[in-house]
Amino acid sequence: MDLIIKNGTIVTAKDTYAADVGIKDGKVVLIGNDLRHSEAETIDASGKLILPGAIDANTHLGMPLNNTQSADDCASGTYAAACGGTTTIFDYVIQQPGESMMETIRKRSELFEKESYIDYSFNVSLTKVTPEILKEFKEAVDFGINQFKVFMIYSKEHLMTDDGTFVKAMLLAKELGARMAVHAENPYIINMHTEEFLAEGKGHPWYHYQSRQEYVETEAVKRAVYWATSFNTPLYIPHLACKEGLDEISRARNEGYDILAETCPHYLYFTNEVYKYEGSQNYVCSPPIKGPESQDALWDGIKRGDISIVATDHCPFQSHEKAAGLEDYTKIPNGVMGIENMYPYMLSEANKGRLSFNKVVEVCSSNPAHLFGCAPQKGTIAIGSDADLVVYDPEKTFVVKPEKMHSNVDHTIWDGVEFSGYPIKTFSRGKLIYDNEKFVGEKGWGQFLKREPLS
Ligand code: URP
């Protein structure tokens, strides 16, 4: 062993028990009581929890949008992630029109190999689903990618995928051991409301929410679930924010269909009230944050297992870029931050008794690993697993302030939020990369995680 973390309480998705963890060459090699080794560095974790590092299954680092790009690139995003106890991300590669998908994936891969501070893997956002792109699915799956995402929104010329193409992609993905994901909102209703609002001079961010209310997302989720159940294909609904969409997913899951839902910390903490007040533009994301009824339903969905994954959809923009759309919400680049806040927030809710620590590990770490083909290497603490570990101090109080965050964004929607308990150390494959509010990692340390095809 080269490292022993002693006297802590290990928490996985299934178990909570007191034990020491022995690590060698980046892997967990021993779990037991009173582990000793003369040459191993020893860390005392008395009174602390030892958790698997979080896996953020939905990030958009350096994503181009509205003639700008999201504020965190690979380096700053993975640096910030580590400071919040996240040790792996699944980042969306944006397929570039006119370029082969594999070309885009390889370029992204080269960038991450040089820049990433933590392990990473990719999903693909498809901007134009052509027959040529579908032909590349197999190569992408062989490369280690098992999720492709399409959009129901935006315009026919840009991003939007029609239902026929979506179903074709779902059937092909199933055959290859991959899962289609869909951004589910109804573009026609958004456009109808937007035209009307802007003609009436109603451009304030509140109308971003008004143009994409619960029914806009619900109809699209129901449609996606309808096609997935009609053709019996797996489906992933990322960033789910509405109650009735979740009801439909629960119904389909109860009937045995392979439908997975993900929600995000901002939908669990904030409500649509945020769009009424100063700074409302900073909360503009799609789907927008919904009302309290949806928020309660999302929490219930996590507890009963119908929401399998909590991930961030991290896609922040600088204040001036958000403010450019204060008079016309359609000009606000969509997306919010969360990469450094997800695990601390969810663990804080566990620390306050809202849900168990095991459940947080399940939705933030072990489910992303199991459901997307990288368990048991990731997502748990077990002999042979990567030593991606977080030492968590349940006694520490942490109040979020922009200057205490490590991301490249000049503000945070989490400003002033107090967390009960906080990660104090993060290890990536046995290497300490975050230590008591100080980042100590290394650029380029992160490795590509090849995800297995899904059975
Ligand atoms: O508002 C969001 N969700 N921004 C991230 C990019 C996307 O459309 O998923």
Q: What report would you give on this structure?
A:
The protein has 455 residues and is α/β, with parallel strands linked by helices. It folds into two domains: 3-51 and 377-439, Urease, subunit C, domain 1; 54-371, TIM Barrel. Helix content is 32%, strand content 24%. The chain has 14 helices and 19 strands. It has helices at 74-83, 101-115, 131-135, 137-143, 163-176, 187-199, 206-211, 214-230, 243-254, 265-269, 292-304, 319-323, 342-351, 357-371, and strands at residues 3-11, 16-24, 27-32, 41-44, 49-52, 54-59, 64-65, 68-69, 86-94, 119-125, 147-151, 179-183, 235-237, 259-263, 309-310, 389-399, 418-428, 431-435, 438-439. Strands 1, 2, 3, 4, 5, 16, 17, 18 and 19 form a nine-stranded mixed beta sheet that branches. An eight-stranded parallel beta sheet has the order 6-9-10-11-12-13-14-15. A two-stranded antiparallel ribbon has the order 7-8. Helix 13 (342-351) runs antiparallel to helix 14. The longest helix is centred in the middle third of the chain and has 17 residues, at 214-230. Bound molecules: N-(aminocarbonyl)-beta-alanine. Residues 60, 183, 239, 285-286, 313, 315, 334-335 line the site of N-(aminocarbonyl)-beta-alanine (URP).
